[in-house]
Amino acid sequence: MTTLPDAGPDALAISRKLCERIAAEIAERGGWMPFSRFMELALYAPGLGYYAAGSLKLGEAGDFITAPELSPLFARTLARQLAELLPQTGGDLIEFGAGSGRLAADLLTELHALGALPRRYAIVDLSPDLIARQRETLAALPEALRSRVEWLNALPAAIDGIMIGNEVLDAMPCELVFRDGEKNLRQRGVAIRDGAFAFEDRDFEDPRLAALAAELIPEIPRYETEISLANRAFIATLAGALARGAILMIDYGHAAREYYHPERSMGTLLGHYRHHTVQDPFYLPGLMDLTCHVDFSAVAQAGLDAGLDLIGYASQGQFLVNCGITSQLAHLDPGNVRDYLPLAKAAQRLLSPQEMGETFKVIGFGKNVAIDWLGFAEGDRCYTL
């Protein structure tokens, strides 16, 4: 059995306070809350949630490593897609959930080299401590680049530019649904038993969720999975604000037919704690990241329903190859082992089907821009959605 790293007394104190906050709300609700609300509090409760408190999240010392943290190759390659699209818009570039600011810094640097700087680079983030890290990271940029960056508290009413999000959708609260041994569909929520958080299933509160569950969930006894109403609403909100431009979302997930496959009976909900995968979603609330995979069919439909053009859907590996990641490696000197080897290893991890290349997908939407994008030139899988 794997022993998880010690959290330390200060972190444990924060987790205890968050548990008390959640328990109080469960009591106020009559002894039960939807899992989506538990996940929202565990991640975003002001001053206590995982993304709202001061714990280190990214990098080797944190809980996970994202593609931008892994290597500047990711941003350098993505920049080529953005450079193709930005001139077709008013020039705004908006990033959601900007992590440590590494992607923003590397994108601005590469877009400057390509002669395609955005008019402004806006960041929308819910995490105060990550915003502080972003400011620190971006402070190292030259003034000509740094001056283009601003932080927004809300989405602009009308956007003429590009919106991007890397590992944003997976961190949005999801609903849990369960088909029991009698094949009855139920909504899985959180109650308190013997002084601890525990799952408890009840009838659906939301008719829309009940209808989606009946449509998506295989008629197999004891089948548990997730449905994200938040993802659908988020894409619809972005679409409503987009006057002209593009939306690019990069995340791990599947098309619906794979997501709700009969063999995927345990769902995709996971915790990430100090580079360990944790199956128990109630482990140290506030100190552990909670995520579920993205249903890209639902994301695609939400965009189409909101009037967007679905431009493409591809694996991250294919998208990066289309945008020229291999040509960037070709320009490096293999003899310069110190510089070449880290980039080559990072490229392998970004592209390999056994690593991030296949698990992560890229979906693109457009409005009043060209529909032929570099990143989806080959290997587009929209037909699978």
Write the layout of secondary structure elements.
Blueprint: H1 9-28, E1 33-34, H2 35-44, H3 67-70, H4 72-85, E2 92-96, H5 102-113, E3 120-124, H6 128-138, H7 143-146, E4 149-152, E5 159-166, E6 175-179, E7 185-193, E8 196-202, H8 207-216, E9 223-227, H9 229-241, E10 242-254, H10 256-259, E11 270-273, E12 276-278, E13 289-291, E14 294-295, H11 296-305, E15 309-315, H12 316-322, H13 325-330, H14 337-351, H15 356-359, E16 360-367
Parallel strand pairs: 2-3, 2-5, 3-4, 5-10, 10-14
Antiparallel strand pairs: 1-7, 6-7, 6-9, 7-8, 10-16, 11-12, 11-13, 15-16
DSSP strand (E) fraction? 15-25%
Q: Sheet with the most strands?
A: 8 strands, mixed
Please mark out the parts with pLDDT under 50 across 5 or more consecutive residues, or reply none: 58-62
Overall 3D geometry? globular
Radius of gyration over all CA atoms, rounded: 21 Å
Number of helices: 15
Helical residue percent band: 25-40%
> Average pLDDT, to the nearest integer?
92
End-to-end distance, in Å? Answer: 39 Å
Give the structural class. Answer: alpha/beta
Total DSSP E strands: 16
Q: Which keywords apply here?
A:
globular, alpha/beta, eight-stranded mixed sheet, single chain, five-stranded antiparallel sheet, 385 residues, 16 strands, 37% helix
What report would you give on this structure?
The longest helix is centred in the N-terminal third of the chain and has 20 residues, at 9-28. This protein is globular. The strands form three sheets. Strands 2, 3, 4, 5, 10, 14, 15 and 16 form an eight-stranded mixed beta sheet that branches. Strands 1, 6, 7, 8 and 9 form a five-stranded antiparallel beta sheet that branches. The chain has a three-stranded antiparallel beta sheet with strand order 12-11-13. 37% of the residues lie in helices and 23% in strands. α4 (72-85) crosses α5 (102-113) and α9 packs parallel to α11 (296-305). With 385 residues, it is of the alpha/beta class. The protein is built from 15 helices and 16 strands.
